[in-house]
Amino acid sequence: MEKREQLYEGKAKRIYRTSSENQYWVEYKDEATAFNGEKKATITGKGELNNRITAIFFTMLKERGIDNHFIRLLSPTEQLVKRVEIIPLEVVVRNIAAGSLAKRLGMEEGTVLPQPVVEFYYKDDALGDPLVNPSHINILGIASEEDQARLEKLGLAVNEVLQAYLQERNILLVDFKLEFGRTPDGEILLADEISPDTCRFWDARTKVKLDKDRFRRDLGGVEEAYQEMLKRLGGEAHV
Ligand code: C5P
Fold first, then answer.
1. Whose CA is nearest to atom 7 of ligand 1?
2. Coiled-coil intervals in this record (predicted)?
């Protein structure tokens, strides 16, 4: 497999074409951003940790029947994925009130929600990724109602699998964000990453945060928290 030209550089990853038309090369960066890019830092080792954690989650999801773009690891910080065109919607699933939901609805962080909440955000940096409802998605022409229903169903299915898997590792899955893409033949496929950058993970006993909130809120120990997540998932970093 050969790495070809860069197609895209995001806040946490670079995407490259490869010698195969239907496969992309993803490189995870050590850069961290929060609050729509306003806060920036380099966290040594983050690229490797998120690359490995994402690989573990995607492999596990595939084994449990949830197909996704992951093909294989290429190096400690790189992975090969299936080519998709990302749908500009962030699908957020929540089990416990935190972050923007706690703020928007005036709920105390840590309140267990009576049922999972699914939200869609329009992926647009200039607009700050606003929350959108089905009518908004319709007028923006981003996804049909059938596709929206499919995204919601997939989000809830990922939630069930991840929650059970993490529970066995003494981790609470507070909330997470997923992205989906369309394959060249139009199939919707889970894509992007699943990592402490895109999820809230709390230690089930102590409620200690093992995710990007440590960076957002200047709690310190960001890399250690990501290391701890990788360890609980049975992985090993080779920095
Ligand atoms: O900030 P908020 O509470 O809406 O975030 C919900 C979940 O989605 C969190 O796990 C957060 O890490 C993730 N998220 C993300 N990328 C964004 C916005 C939120 O990964 N642009």
1. 176
2. none
Residue whose C-alpha is closest to residue 178's, from 93, 106, 71, 70: 93
| Residue 142: both structure tokens together | 């981003």
Question: What string of pLDDT tens digits covers the 239 residues of the chain?
Answer: 899 999 999 999 999 999 999 999 999 999 999 999 999 999 999 999 999 999 999 999 999 999 999 999 999 999 999 999 999 999 999 999 999 999 999 999 999 999 999 999 999 999 999 999 999 999 999 999 999 999 999 999 999 999 999 999 999 999 999 999 999 999 999 999 999 999 999 999 999 999 999 999 999 999 999 999 999 999 987 64
Helix (H) or strand (E) segment spanning residue 182: strand 171-182
The three-class DSSP label of residue 104 is: helix
207 neighbors 108 (Cβ within 8 angstroms): no
In order of start, what are the domains of the chain with their CATH numbers? 3-82 (3.30.200.20), 85-220 (3.30.470.20)
Cβ neighbourhood burial of 226 (10 Å; 0-12, 13-18, 19+): buried
Quote the ligand 1 centre to 200 CA distance (angstroms). Answer: 8
Looking from the CA of residue 100, the nearest atom of ligand 1 is: 3
What is the position in ligand 1's atom list of the atom closest to the CA of 176? 10
In this structure, which amino acid lies at residue 89? L
Backbone angles phi, psi at 210, to 5 degrees: -120, 50
Q: What angle do CA 230, 72, 142 make, to 5 degrees?
A: 90
